[in-house]
Structures are given as C-alpha cells and as structure tokens.
Amino acid sequence: MALGALEQGLIYSLLAVGVFVSLRILDIPDLTVDGSFITGSAVSVMITQLAPEGGASALIPALSLPAALAAGALAGICTGLIHTKLKVQPLLAGIITMTGLFSINLLVLNEKPTVSINGRPGIFSVLYDLFSVNPTTRKIVAAALLLVIVALVAALLTVFLKTQLGLAIRATGDNEDMVRASSIDSDNMKIIGLAIANGIVALSGAVLAQHQNFADAKAGTGMVVVGIASIIIGETLFGKRSVFNSLLSAIGGALAYRIFIAVVLQLGLKASYFKLLSAVIIIISILIPIASKSIAERRAKEAKNNADD
Amino acid sequence: MLTIKNARITFNAGTVNERKALDKINLSFARGSFTTVIGSNGAGKSTLLNAISGAYALDSGHIFLDGEEITEKPEHFRARIIGRLFQDPLKGTAPNMTIEENLALAYGRGTRRGLSIGIRKADGVFFKEALSRLGLGLEDRLKSKVGLLSGGQRQALTLLMATIVPPKLLLLDEHTAALDPQTAAQVMRITGEFVRENNITTIMVTHNIDDALHTGDSTIVLSNGRLVLTLEGVERESMTVERLMKVYSAAANDSFGDSMLL
Ligand SMILES: Nc1ncnc2c1ncn2[C@@H]1O[C@H](COP(=O)(O)OP(=O)(O)OP(=O)(O)O)[C@@H](O)[C@H]1O
Ligand SMILES: [Mg+2]
C-alpha cells in the first residue's frame, strides 16, 4: 500500500508543481488545470497507441510526454490570452478554457470516455519487461522512474526561475506595476507562466495515464483543488521560506496527501468521498496556521498579563 | 526631448463623477531639464506622469518622446527609456523577492529577458557598490526580501532601480512624501546626485513649494487638470512661497472662479 501511495504521490506532485507555478508564482488561481490535466492524459494515450502492436520500444510513449506538455502549454496560453488580451478575470478565463477543453479532450480521445493504450508499450511497461514481473520490483521500478521525472522537472524549474525570464515571471506575480516600469511586458510573462504551469499539469496527467494504461475523460474534475491542497499541506508541514523551499514543499505536500488518502482508504472510506475529503483537508490546512498563530498570541498576552501582575 | 500636445484625460466621462484630470495640456521639456510640478490634491499631477509613462492612455492628444510619437505605445515599451518613482513607496519594488533580484530586474531595463542567468557574479559586485552609495547599509543585505525593508529604504532602492540603467527621462511622483523628514532629505539628495551625474531629463511632482522652487530649473503649476502657470529664469528665482500662493490663487480664480489652496 505504502508503495502505491508513493507512486500516486509522485505523479500528483507534478500536478502540485504545475498549480504552484500559477497559484504561488503568478498569484493566479488557474482553473484551466481541470481540463489540461486530462489533455495531457489524452494526448499521451493517443500517441502511445501509434506504436506498432507487439513492439517493445519506449521511444513513442516517451515522446508522448513532451507532446502532452506542449498540449498543456497551449491550453495555458489560451487562458493567458483570454485573461490579458480580452481583459477577462483570471478565474473566468480559466473556466472558459477548461470548459472548451472538455470537448477537445473528448475529440482527442475519439469521443470515447476512456481509452486504453491497447497493449502498446508504455513507459512503465517497457521498464517492467526489462526487469522482472515480481509485483514489488515493479513498484520499485515505477517509483524510481517517477522520482527521476519529478526530480528532472523540479530541477529544470528551479534553474528556470533563476534566469532573467524566470525572475521577470516571479516579479509579475509579486508587483506588476514594478515589472512594467522595468520595461517588461507583464502580459507576456503571465502567458508564459500559465503555459509552463499547464504544461507541467498536463505532464502529470500524461504520466498518470501511462501508469494506469488508460485515459479517463472525466477524471479532471477537482484537480485544481487537489493541487492546491498539496501546496497548502506542503507549506504547513515543510515551510515556505523561499520559492525554492515552497516548490519542494509542494512536492512533499503531494506525497503527504496521497499517504493520508491511502490511510483513510484502508480505514474503509469510499472513493466517492475523496473530493469532499480534499476540500476538508484544504480548510483544515488553512486553519492550522491561523489557529497556531492565535494560540501563540494568546499565550504571549497571558504571559504579559502575568508579568504585569 | 518630451513634448505633450493637447493632452486630455477625462475619468468617468458622461457621469456625475466626470472629472477632467488633464485638460488640453501642452508642455515641452528640453533634454537635461529638471522641471518641478505643483498643484493641489486632485490637480492632475499624478495623472500627467501616468500619461507620460503610459499607465493611462490619452483620450486625445499626442506625446512625443525623443523624437518618436509614443501616444499609442504600451507602458513597458516606454519604460525602456523612462525611469519612475511612485508616490507609494511600496509600488516600486517586488516585496517577496530579494534586494539583488529586484536590482537584477531593473538592471535588465531595455533588454529582452531570456534564459541567461538572472544574477551573474559580476552583477552582485556591481549591485553591492551601487547600494553602498545610498549609505543605508543595504549592501550587506543583498539576499534579504525587500518586504522586510522600511518605506524609506524601499524608496531609496526604487530610486536606485530607476537609475541603475540611466533612463533618458525620470518621473518622480512625490517620491519622498511618505518618508520621515530626515530620510526624505537623504533620498532627495541622492536623487539630485543621480540626475546631475547622468544629465537625466527629470519631472518631479512635490507638495513642498520650497523644494519645487529651489530644485531644478523650472516649475509648472497645475489646477483642475489645466496648466495655470509656468515659472522659469529670473521670475522663478525671485519667487517666494507667499507670492507664489498669491499668484497661484489668482491664476486659479481666473480660470475657474474658485480658490484652492496648494
Ligand atoms: N484611475 C482613476 N479613475 C478615476 N478617477 C481618477 C483616476 N485617477 C485619478 N483620478 C481623478 O483625477 C483627478 C486627478 O488625480 P491625480 O491623481 O492626478 O491628482 P494629483 O494631482 O496627483 O493629486 P495628489 O496631490 O493628491 O496626489 C482626481 O480628481 C482623481 O480623483
Ligand atoms: Mg498624485
């Protein structure tokens, strides 16, 4: 069970990283995510199906990942254009793209609600074949591959955030006036940022599809909330001293969230309650810092009163 | 250097709240000139600077900067050669980023932001040296978040950011108004030094009439979105605060029949 939760956690930590880019770096609550996550799954599965039947090369499924990332980035660019050029509130801009994506995702999946990779080699199955069929080994192999992907994404993003462009995007979420006064087009920064955010989200969807061997057109609902929950849990558990600290916290938060879900599942909670659980977890994670602050304040007050007596 | 022709901006046009913030403004600023702007609250001073920087679009009229018409150009385009300090000291810096990150952003003024490293080693050394000239000890806090600085420190940093790549035009909107007198005097002194060293064309809004008359080389007075007075040369030198108040209220009375205090 623990290993399964680890795999899930790693897959969804990519989602958390994507949401982190829009929510925490750009300061935009981007609802495109519910659509672009599935776009990633759909693109990855459809490309994987192009491989010859009975083949064993990982090339095509591996290429499906950057393709999914690009498709997600396009979705992000759409939201960015609607928001910056048409001056639509970011929340609404995200909803518009997300709604459109529902149809587009179905189109990509040939109008079927679920599509499997049809026995074609996927990035995980190719590796399983290389090693052994032992289920525990499989899980370790899968977790190792996921770890490599997550580490790669986190490292690239960290380096990117330290480039000139990365700095400009971070500043756009912090003080847009200052960014424009520094001769930077803040609209472009938001568009690029949303492209990166949704690209990573779509990558998360693609990796999930590879892991479970199918894409589900309806599985996107609530993905934003899952991403935000991971970020907030991460910040509560692991801190948010700097962007880079927060980025790692988001990954840790996604892992903690999945482990928690696995535990609750073991205790017998039905899967249909997960979304409610996610919402409740967010509320609780928001409440913890507020509560601990007010307790600390009350303590300080009491201490002061005692000292005055 | 900068020419403004028949500039008009009306807020909430056609409603009871209609407000002519700029009313047929014609102005010309020579290269290297230092102009101070005074006028009562709501006279249109900030609006004038916002129109020049591109934060507000003109309803009608034209703006030429450095020989090029920029009336339709976006704010970030104009910012390649315009440096700016805001009335609000929090507005010019990114609070959750470090001092050196803020400086690095400003240091890239006028260039394309690409994938090269944001802060090179040499930049760090240069930033340290530039900060030490402010005399606020910020050179030892390159990695501190700007949000931790005081208003005066942030405004001094903004001044450095606005001038680290010398702009052709510097817009100062009451940039010392929110600071304590001592810090205000210091920021004003540093401003003067930067402007003189780099021979930057400067427009400075202030409520301090004494500052207005004794800084730079000409003074303009705005009232209700109109240019009511231009003071230059001997007339300006012989002007006292009391006389300016009189001249000003007379001018304001002339055009509007109401008297407003500076
Ligand atoms: N964005 C805006 N929307 C509506 N009205 C505005 C806006 N900006 C300025 N105004 C109005 O335009 C007029 C001029 O404002 P402006 O900020 O230029 O005054 P100011 O001379 O800078 O005053 P102060 O000395 O108080 O800073 C005011 O009546 C103001 O209410
Ligand atoms: Mg003003």
Text of the CATH class of chain A = Mainly Alpha
Tertiary shape of chain A = globular
Structural class of chain A: mainly alpha
Percent of residues in beta strands of chain B: 15-25%
Order of helices and strands of chain A: HHHHEHHHHHEHHH
According to CATH, the homologous superfamily of the largest domain in chain B is P-loop containing nucleotide triphosphate hydrolases
> What structural category arises from helix and sheet content of chain B?
alpha/beta
Major sheet: arrangement of strands of chain B = 6-7-8-3-9-10
Radius of gyration of chain B: 19 Å
* CATH fold title of the largest domain in chain B: Rossmann fold
Task: Characterize the largest beta sheet of chain B: strand count, sense, and whether it forms a barrel.
Answer: 6 strands, mixed
Number of strand segments of chain B:
10
Whole-number count of domains of chain B: 2
Largest interface: A-B, 22 and 35 residues
What percentage of residues of chain B falls in helices of 4 or more residues? 25-40%
Radius of gyration of chain A: 21 Å
**Distance between the first and last residues' Cα of chain A:** 56 Å
Spans where pLDDT lies below 50 across 5 or more residues of chain A: none
Query: Would you count the extended β strands of chain A for me?
Result: 2
